[in-house]
Amino acid sequence: MKKVIFFSLGVFTLMAGAVAILWNWLPTEKEIKGCLVTRMYQVELCPGSKDYVPLKQISSNLQKAIILTEDSNFWNHKGFDWDAIEKNAREGWESGVFKRGGSTITQQLAKNMFLTKDRTFIRKGLEAIITDRIEHTLTKKEILERYLNVVEFGKDIYGVKAAAKYYFKKTPAELSVVESAFLAMVLPNPVKYSKSYYRKELTPFAKTRLNRIVEDMYRYNRISQDEYDVAVNQVAYFFQPEPPPEELNVPAEEIPTLQDLENAEMEESEQ
Hints:
By secondary structure, the chain is mainly alpha-helical. The chain is 59% helix and 3% strand. The chain is built from 14 helices and four strands. It has helices at 2-25, 29-33, 60-70, 82-95, 105-114, 121-137, 140-150, 160-168, 177-186, 190-193, 195-199, 204-219, 225-236, 258-270, and strands spanning 36-37, 44-45, 152-154, 157-158. The strands form two sheets. The protein has a two-stranded antiparallel ribbon. Strand 1 (36-37) and strand 2 form a beta hairpin. Helix 5 crosses helix 7. The longest helix is centred in the N-terminal third of the chain and has 24 residues, at 2-25. The radius of gyration is 22 Å and the shape is globular.
């Protein structure tokens, strides 16, 4: 009996010690708000530094495009989109295939700032705790601001300042609807989906996806009718010399449909 008691006390002590170590390792409010080098990609993230871009100096087009494509319920949830989690779980159970991804912007920020690429249960648990801490420490605007300053937009391209300069020779404030849609389009796989830039021609997938993002921005009232009309024409000649004005109007039949998008995504996944 004594052995059982001593064994139980030993296990409890070890567990309590592990919890204490873990708790002390978790980022503090000061660390979340302050300057640091991110663990994921070793990116310097320091609000107020010369390379850090305040949210008010980032194009609203980009903010809207990325929220719409990455985390449409961003302004309403508390770090976790439970509706999306439930939907993915239900579809996975029915199909037998559980999709990866679907993380909120806050979850992605937690991973980028404090975690690694490991896909373990322990890391997922840490991600959940850190996500909750970030949501209780920063405002939604601060979360979005930090995310845009640290997220990967291509090979060795981190943060909106570097991305706007590299791809378009612009500041983040100057990004157009289509340029913003392009940056939103590359986020799921920045190295792979940025290849249109190096080819100076949109791949079929990229062109269809860009049109879809622009279409959704208009459908969900993120841009006006005039902005939508201009953007559709710009997609048609993205990364190419602009044609004479009389050739700028794109026939409706050349604008990809939802079926076109699904076919393009299927072809892309098979490559």
